[in-house]
Amino acid sequence: MSDVVRLLRDADGRPVVETRFRVRYFETDAMGIVHHASYITWFEEGRSAFTRALGYPYARMEADGLLLALAEVHARYHLPARYDDEVVVVTTLDAFPSRGMNFSYAVHRASDGALLVTGNTRQVAIDRAGRVQQVPAEIRQRIMAAIG
Amino acid sequence: MSDVVRLLRDADGRPVVETRFRVRYFETDAMGIVHHASYITWFEEGRSAFTRALGYPYARMEADGLLLALAEVHARYHLPARYDDEVVVVTTLDAFPSRGMNFSYAVHRASDGALLVTGNTRQVAIDRAGRVQQVPAEIRQRIMAAIG
Amino acid sequence: MSDVVRLLRDADGRPVVETRFRVRYFETDAMGIVHHASYITWFEEGRSAFTRALGYPYARMEADGLLLALAEVHARYHLPARYDDEVVVVTTLDAFPSRGMNFSYAVHRASDGALLVTGNTRQVAIDRAGRVQQVPAEIRQRIMAAIG
Amino acid sequence: MSDVVRLLRDADGRPVVETRFRVRYFETDAMGIVHHASYITWFEEGRSAFTRALGYPYARMEADGLLLALAEVHARYHLPARYDDEVVVVTTLDAFPSRGMNFSYAVHRASDGALLVTGNTRQVAIDRAGRVQQVPAEIRQRIMAAIG
Question: Is the pLDDT of residue D2 over 50?
Fold first, then answer.
């Protein structure tokens, strides 16, 4: 399983990253389908993949002093995913304001492209003490350069 | 740990249930605080407590043929909870349309009442095959009677 | 939901703490029963309750510099728990060697006392840098005094 | 991310499957490392990969009437994994008795091959009603043929 993911563009020129993986059994619940909170963790994995595609993985951002805390999440559930389904998470950087990053997501079933879940999140930049900060200038520059 | 929870009213007369529990270690993440997806599972636990307070627990609703699938969730994160914090989840039934239930939530830290997270969800009534249905008349009646 | 839990003794004089809670929906999986990894998090919650019953909650141990990392876990699954079941986790301190703590667990269904899962864990004392250490003398003394 | 995984052999001729993925943020805890229960879900993902490598994915086994419930798990934790680490789960079929399957696992860090966690599980064959059963003859045959 290679995870070379490339930075793409949507029709509006916004940077987009796709990542795909299979549904794990523990992500399901007694309804026989994926539990709704699992998709929220997939959004997070979408952000991780996004930063890896930038060549600037979030793990390094954290080491460099930029923590991105979730300030808001919204999700709409259209169709359920099931165990072992291959899914594609499409993550788009919607905005990059001075104090954070806004992403949107679309989760598709790989087999037929069906749209399962859509959502968006607002991340706020904090420092290690948990205080809201501006994205440090160097880090911003590095991300902007990667986005192109 | 008794879990006798009573049905309360908010200022607008809407039914409200409070449930309290402690943050578990596994609900935290490497930021040292509760992971954002954990609150989504607390909303769910708020709904469970709500139906127990009605005297009509969700487990019985499912046995009676009413499954409530999550169609939409929104959450705003104000302050982080930490391991072992006692938290109170306040769950309000906002609306009870023909095909589901809408809830809102406020998660407070018990020690000082600080507001940690707010959110709301929209549940859709489905049958065992996953098809959207109207809330069956008998079940609706039973819930309406319990709400009073 | 009060969580005043008392330190008890088993037949061999070992300290025991019981904690009870209800199964959450997200802890189930597509088999319709509680996912096996959830019980591992209940063991952890059992340890948390144990330290609270000591009057020396693990959160404070961590603040005092004692981190207990899991070195080993073993679990046997006898009967499944289901959503909304009330369960009782019985946590026993089996041994308190110089570099850690060993616990065993029995998870029962509250309604009929049925034994669902048994297990044990070995915790190793580490410092904040993750190095194995002896349990600091003061902390050991404090725990020993609490155990009585 | 392709997930074509091949069936390998260990030195004793037992069938082995390797799967690799990255640590997700939500799998970590406040110690800054992967939570111990997450590895248990990786074992499960190892089993899923194993059955996919057989050409007989567990999802299909379930559809064919063979459910494998966890009866026992044991894990030893040697070194911690961290967020974004690439890990390799090596899953070995240790035994295939009449009423289940026994697996062992080794989780390695991909970057340097360090051994992080080892463990094993015992799965018991059950039917849809949760009763222990013999692995149905046809399914056994199909698995044996795939193992070769």
Answer: no
Residue B118 lies in a domain: yes
What is the extent of the structural domain holding A12? 8-147
CATH number at residue C31: 3.10.129.10
Is A2 a domain residue?
no
Q: Residue C87: inside a domain, yes or no?
A: yes
Angle at which helices C36-53 and D36-53 cross, to 10°: 170
- Residue C144, judged by CB atoms within 10 A of its CB (0-12, 13-18, 19+), counts as exposed
The average pLDDT across A28-52 equals 97
Closest CA to A100 of A63, A143, A46: A143
For CA atoms D80, D84, D85, D90, the dihedral sign is positive
Q: How many Cβ atoms are within 10 Å of C17's Cβ, its own excluded?
A: 23
Count the domains in chain A: 1
- Look up B10 and say whether it is catalytic: no
Do C59 and B84 make contact, defined as CB atoms within 8 angstroms? yes
C3 vs B contacts (CB less than 8 Å) = 1, 22, 86
**pLDDT score for D4:** 65
* Residues B56, B69: Cα–Cα separation, whole Å: 17
DSSP for A12-42 reads TS-EEEEEEEEPPGGGB-TTSSB-HHHHHHH
Q: How close does chain B come to A38, measured CA to CA in Å?
A: 8
The yes-or-no verdict on residue D16 having pLDDT over 50 is yes
Q: Name the pairing type of β-strands A15-22 and A86-95.
A: antiparallel
Location of structure tokens 């981190």: C67
The helix-helix angle for A36-53 and B36-53 (nearest 10°) equals: 170
Phi and psi at residue C79, to the nearest 5°: -140, 150
Cα separation values, D106 from A124, B83, D92, D109, D139, Å: 37, 30, 9, 10, 27
| Mean pLDDT lowest among A35-39, B18-22, B86-90, C128-132 | C128-132
Using CA coordinates, name the residue in chain C closest to B88: C1
Rounded Cα distance between A64 and C147, Å, is: 44
Q: Is the pTM of this model over 0.90?
A: yes
Residue A3 domain-assigned?
no
Q: How crowded is residue D9: how many other Cβ atoms within 10 Å of its Cβ?
A: 12
